[in-house]
Amino acid sequence: MLGRERVEIKTPEQIQKMRAAGLLTSAALESVRAALRPGITPKELDAIGAEVIRAGGGTSNFLGYHGYPATLCISVNEVVVHGIPGDTPLVAGDVVSIDGGAVVDGWHGDSAFTAIVGEPDDAGDAELVEITRQALWAGIAALDARGRVGDVGAAVEDAVDGRLGIVDGYTGHGIGTAMHMAPDVLNYRVREKGPKVRPGMVLAIEPMCTRGGIETDVLPDDWTVVTSDGTRAAHWEHTVAVLDEGLWVLTAPDGGASELAAFGVQVPSA
Ligand code: MF3
Ligand code: CO
Question: What is the reported pLDDT for 134?
Answer without folding.
Answer: 98
